[in-house]
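Q: Got a minute? One more chain.
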Amino acid sequence: MLTTSPVLVGRDEELALVEASLQAARQGAGRAVFLLGDAGIGKSRLASESAFRAVASGLAVLRGRSSATGAAMPFRPIAEALLSLFRIGGPPQDPELAPYRSALGGLVPEWRGANPPDGTTSLVETAEAVLRLLAAVGRDPSSGQEPGCLLVIEDLHDADAETLSVIEYLVDNLAGLPVFLLVTLRPGAGAADDLARAAGRRRSAVLAELRALTPDQVRLVAESCLGAGAGQLPQPLTDKLVQDSEGNPFVVEELLSGMVAANVLLGGADGWRVSGDLSIDVPATVVHSVAQRVGRLSPVGRELLHSAAVLGRRFALPVLKLVTGLDDRSLLVHLRAGIDAQLISPSGPVADWYEFRHALTTEALLADLLPGERADIAVRAAAAVEQAYPGLPGDWCQQVAVLRLTAGDTRGAALLFAQAGQAALRDGAVTSAVSLLEHAHALISGSGPSDEAGTVLEALIYTLVETGRLDRALELADTLPLTGPGALDDARAAALHTRLAWGAVSALRHEEAAARVALVRRLLGRFDSGSITPALDVVEANLVLAGFGEASRAGGAGGVSAADGTGSAVGTAGAGAAAGEAGEHRTSQAERLARRSADDAERAGLPEVACQALQFLALLERRHGFDRADACLERLLALATRHGLTTWRLDALLRLGANEFMRNGTSEQLARAHRAAVELGAIVLGHTAEATMASQAVFRGEYATARALTDRCAEATARLGHVDNHQYLLLTRAALAAHQGRRREMEQQLAEFHRWDGDRSLKMPLVFGNCRAMCSLLEEDREQALTELDNARAWEDENPTVFYFNGRYGLRPLLRVLTGRATEAEHELVRLDPGAGLLWNRQFERLAYAVHQGRAGRTEEAERAVAQAREASAPFLMARHLGLRLVAEAALADGWGDPVPWLRTAEEYFHGAGVPAVASACRDLLRRAGATVPQRRSGSDRVPPELRRQGLTAREYEVLLLLGPRLGNQEIAGRLYISPRTVEKHVASLLTKTGQSHRAALCDYAARFGPVDADSSDEPLAR
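A: Always. Here it is, folded:
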């Protein structure tokens, strides 16, 4: 008889919480709820009821459960949840998911072809991709569902580390999304419990701890199970249930099943009655209850269930068939008997998979086996899995490792755990990879030194370095035996310590890196080192530049590692002067090492090392000119394309795109690189491209575009923890404000930049030159702007960087000559630097040159330089007008050029841009020049730009419009409520400003700006 309650008893508060959370999801207010409770307390029943209510109200439901086999497959419950929804209809086709498909390839079967470039998807990127996918599911109009979705993850206490990280990420970022996350777990369950309680403390999630049922609620469960009316059950029965179940509803159901099966609880026309001694015949524990039901099965049925329990709570039918040796018919017959006994049931949407009804059922079956019996079944089960799934794909490798361990085969289990760890690393599950390899190392090292133990330890060290756990990797590396069993041969030892050295360099731990390099150098003569020296040279190139290499004893510390979107090289803050003689010596030495590494790596067939060297070399080559830098990047691009190194190929394209903008102000190549990154799912590189594009939009004066780009990816980079990209986006937002003269907004963004550890960032020159100096100029504070530019230069002199857009090669020389601080000889040194040839700098450098020439009386040369500056400034809207404003003052003073039109154009731009200080300065200079000054009265914004540049006021524009239909002065005066004499004065001014020779020509000119109905009574633009 079925003794399961058809209704949920005693969970009214929790159901109210579920209803509120479902409603919040429908309204786009995401919420996370953790249900905590002991086994059998009703977590799964409550989760099922939540899923039922979600489906009934039209929400999409995704549901997955963690494995309890001890072999936690990375992302298993997440993948199962996605599969539960997408199996029939497929995943959503939202185009915004395109960049995230490769990150989800391991979780969504339909997207498994979209492999992440070079396996680079990080755990946080995967979590962000899951978040985006859930948001798309909740908003997918094609699904036919109401807005919102429910994600149920059960038994989080059994989850892998990757799933825990994804859940934590989701919990912290659900706000504003149509997603309800419901998680069940047992309290006190280690990392999962810590996660839930920490989320509760910071109010990112709601914790609901399921309490034991009250005696009245136990009675209601029993009545519901037995179909009895209120008060119809014998009092001794309910008393016994209350006493033995301790308020656990699952135990209540199990006890009732045992009582009915033992015929001590009988039902009839008169209701239920007790027949016998409950204290003797009723099983006292769930274990006994399960054992009693199993005992009623045939011997073959009992063996089948025990074998299944050894496989885990969830098991595959093909494997069970091999373990038991049953034919298909017999297998299904005994399987049906287990279902009828309420012990097992089909498992979700996946065919041929079954699971035990409850975790306690599995534990009870295992407790019924002697250790030797469990080991015997584990041996047969391991062999069966290996036969059914050759190569042990997916999580089978871990499952067989657990079975081998159960069988007592410690060595075999360790090797399988190591194999599973390396597979997890390839799949991007880095935390699980480390955990599995650490487990393998602990198991195999317990049996003493051996070559296999050395191999496992070697794999663990490499994985630790790949995942950024450098301290642990270095600690374990020092435990490797130098000779005997477990020792690595010289070639493997050299390769391992070279990788450790690179990890140390990347972490800016130069002394540690130098020590590892010295160790490897001592080994090189003992074997053919052609495959080692190129990678070693790249490490030493970095060390040389930082002042730690053998070739650079000329003091100082620093380093260069990667380029950002403005042409900066990222190195070590606080480094020694790179511009000085010692710094140049180090740079030359580093360049030679990097070049040798690139050449040797290509010859040795080490394309990734060659790419690494070429990237570094391209940065160093910039000091010789961007042609040489681009040649390195083109070589890197060809190499990466030839060898299918997608990430390196995209990196080269992005760097070439950044260089293209610096050279000619265009972004076509960068836009192509961005599209490629999006199509391939290279999330980090996609954000890098968008950050670079945003910065370029600021320089071009396309502020709306810059704002849209920064808004689009700033939140994502913060969530993903991509500090470099997020810092750059914050600086771009600061520059966006600075280039519009908005100091308060700029300082707010800079404060946030410093909160993200900006003080230690190599992007600090951007704070001085691209933000504060520019903002000061738009406030007409030239001295403060020059101070900020001096700060930028001083910072660069103390750090080996190659920033080019911070004023050193353009804006600073212009301000110095305008303030009388610079000589022509000083300017000539600036002009000869390759940085001065970049378009942004060239516009200011040419203007500075023009001022020098104008002061010397070389007027033609000065005007030619201004023409060159205006050509260079074509892509840069705001800077073009700012440069004209700055140079016009000197042109007026020294009597050269055509400063009045320059000032009119600049005044027109800055007035429209809402930068009053510069617009006012332009008007003051126009007055000094004796030119007419635009009157900025009401309606002036309606004057066409062409006429504003000619100096027309709003009133003059009104008169001009009425001249189009050839109205006379008297008629115009009547329309505008002014005197005919005033109209005559305006007409005279219009003839002068527009350059027309007589009134008829002026009327023809006025007709170009639109017809005006002579009988119109429209209000004038200005009174």
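A: The mean pLDDT is 84.
Q: Perfect, thanks.
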